[in-house]
C-alpha cells in the first residue's frame, strides 16, 4: 500500500462505543467552538505588581484570575490527578470521565469523596453547571463541545467559571503537541491556583525524569517504531501530536512522518496492514485500557505481522491509553516505558 492510499480518519465521525476517549474525542474536537480561540502561548502566567491577579493565554483565550479558584472540576482522571498533586484536592468539587482510567492508589484515596460528574464521557451540561465550578481543567477542547450536549466555554463563563485546556489539547496544536507542553500546564495551573512551589517541584521532577531518559539514550541508534491503534480489525497509524513526540523523546524513529499529508489535519490515519509490513518497524507501540485489550492487540499483531521485526523480536510495547492524554503526568511515564523497551541496555 502506498502512502497516498492511506485514508485519514474522518474528523467528525460518530464515536464508536469501544473506542478510547483519547482517540474518539479528538476525532471530533475540531468542531466549531465559538468561545475557544486558536493558538497557545508557552509563556508562564503573569501576575500584577501586587501579586493578586494572574493572567495567562490558553488556546488563544486570555484568562484572568483575581483570586485563586476554590471550586475546581477535573474533566479527566489525568487532570484530577494533576490537581491533587498540586495540593488543591480540597478545592475539587467534581471529577469526570472517571472510568476512562484509574487514578494511582495514593491519589485515588484522596479523590474518593470527590463527586463524580460522569464516568466514560464528559459530563452533561446541566451536571457540570450544577457543580458550580469557578475553574474547569480539561485535556482537550472537545469536553466543551456544545453540539455533544456539553457545557460550552461561553456557558461556563456565563456561570462564573473559566476553562483551562491542556496546552497540547488546544485544537490548533493537537498535531504538533510536545511532551514538554505538560510543564507549561503545571506552571500555569500552579500560578492560577496560587501553589507555585508545588508546581515548581512537579516541573523539576518531570524535567529530571526526562533528562535521565535523554542522558541514558545518548547517541544510541534509534529503532524504527510504528504506533498503532486497533479497533476490532480496523487498524490506524498514529503519526503526529503528543503521541509522536513521546516516541521521539523515548529514542524511537517513527516510521510515519508527522508532516505527511494524511496527518495534516488529524494525528491518526486508517491504514491497511500492508502499510506496516512495508515499513518493517523494529518496534510497535500501542495504547490500551487494560489487560484484556492488551492481549487482544498483541494477538492481532502477532497474527497479522509474523515476519515484521517488531513481532519476531517481541518488541510490542503496550502503553496505558491514559498516558497519551494531553496535559497528564502519564506522558512522562509513557516516555520512560517506551525508552526502557527500546533501549534496555541503557538503563
From TrEMBL:
Pfam name, any one: Peripla_BP_2
Entry-linked InterPro entries: ABC_Transporter_SBP, ABC_transptr_periplasmic_BD
Family, per entry: Belongs to the bacterial solute-binding protein 8 family.
Gene source species: Marinactinospora thermotolerans DSM 45154
Classification lineage: Bacteria, Bacillati, Actinomycetota, Actinomycetes, Streptosporangiales
Protein name from the UniProt record: Iron complex transport system substrate-binding protein
Signal peptide (UniProt feature, chain positions): 1-34
Domain Fe/B12 periplasmic-binding: 71-346
Keyword Metal-binding recorded: no
Domain of life according to the entry: Bacteria
Keyword Signal: yes
Alphabetically ordered keywords of this record: Signal
